[in-house]
Sequence to fold (346 residues):
Amino acid sequence: MKINNKNNEYEKDKKYSNDSTRKELLNDEKGNFSIILTSLILIGFLLLSIIILNVAINQERENGEIVSSNNFQYIVNDYIRNLPLIEHEALEDLSEEIIKDKRPSLDSKSDLKEIVDGKLSAKNKEYYENYGIQINSSLIAIENTSNPFSYKFKTHILSVKGDYSFEKIVSSDVDCIDLKDPVPILYLKDYHGLSYNESFYNYGNSLSEFLRSKGVENYSFYIDANSPLIIRKCPYDPYKHHGDDNGKIMKNCRDNGYYHESRDGACYLCRLEGKSGCEHYGFETFINPQKTNETGRVSACGSDHVIFSDDIYPGVEVIYNDEDRLKEILYLDPHGHKVKYGMSGF
Ligand SMILES: [Zn+2]
Ligand SMILES: [Zn+2]
Fold:
C-alpha cells in the first residue's frame, strides 16, 4: 500500500510535475507572445514616428522653398520697379549732355541704349553683391506712343538664383516732362546772343540773325524773343480754348511756356537729334516775340517747328494781352495755328 501510496504520490508528483511543466510552457508562450506584441507595437510606433518626422521635415523644407521663392520674386519685382526711374534718368542724362555740348545725338535711340545698358549693368552688380541674385538685362527697344510726351522702353531681363529663374521683357513708360528742349540751342549754336535761365531761352540777337540768314522779312521782330526751355504739357485741352477769357488762357499758357501735341512738331527723341519736325506724332511750342506797341505786323509764324525749319512761312500778329503799354503777341498763320488755338477772333 505504502508502495502504492508512494506510487500514487509518485503518480501525483508525476501528474503535478507534468502540470507545472505545461503551466511553465504556457507561461513561456504567453511571455514570448507579449514580447513579440510589444516589439511589433514598438516597431510600429517607430515607423510611425519616422513617417511623421519625415513629413515634418519635408513640410519645413517646402516652407523654406516658398519663403526663398517669394523672396526671389520680391527682389526681382523691386528691380523691375526701378526700371522706369533708371530709364528716365538716362533720357535726362542724354539731354543734358546734348545741351552742354551743343551737339545733337546722331541716333538718340542707340545713345539711350548705351546709357541705359551701362546703368543696368551697374544695378545688376549691386543686386548680385546685395542679394546674390544674378541679373542680365538690356534695353531692346524704344517705341513712340500715342502720347508724344511718353515713350515705351522695353527691357529684357534674365535673372537666376539657385533653382529659381525669371525671364521677361518689361515695358516701362518714360516721359520727357520737365526735361530740357535742345532744339533752339542746336539750331542757334553758331549765333551770338542765346542764353537761358532755369525755365526759358532768351534769344538776344541770335534768332533774328538766324531768320535774317533764312531771308525772313521783319526778322528784327524776334530780337530779344523768348521760348520755353523745359518741356511742360499744356493743360488747356482742347486747344481751341486758348482764346477764351479774352486771351487770358493764351497768356497763362505763354507765361508758363507750355508745349502742345502736334503732328508737325518733332517728338522728344528727334529733338535730341536736332530736328524740329519728324514722322512721329510730336509737339510744338511758341516763340514769344518782343512786346510791341505797333499793330498789324507780320513776321515768321512763331510755332517752333516753323521757325526752326527750311520752310518758314509767315504769321500775322495775334495780340493776346493788351493791358500794358506794350502788347503781348504771337505771329500765327491765319488758317492753321490761329484756328487750332481758337485765336481766330484776335
Ligand atoms: Zn497752351
Ligand atoms: Zn520723332
Notes: The helical segments are 2-101, 108-131, 183-187, 206-213, 248-256, 268-271, 304-307, 337-340. The radius of gyration is 44 Å.
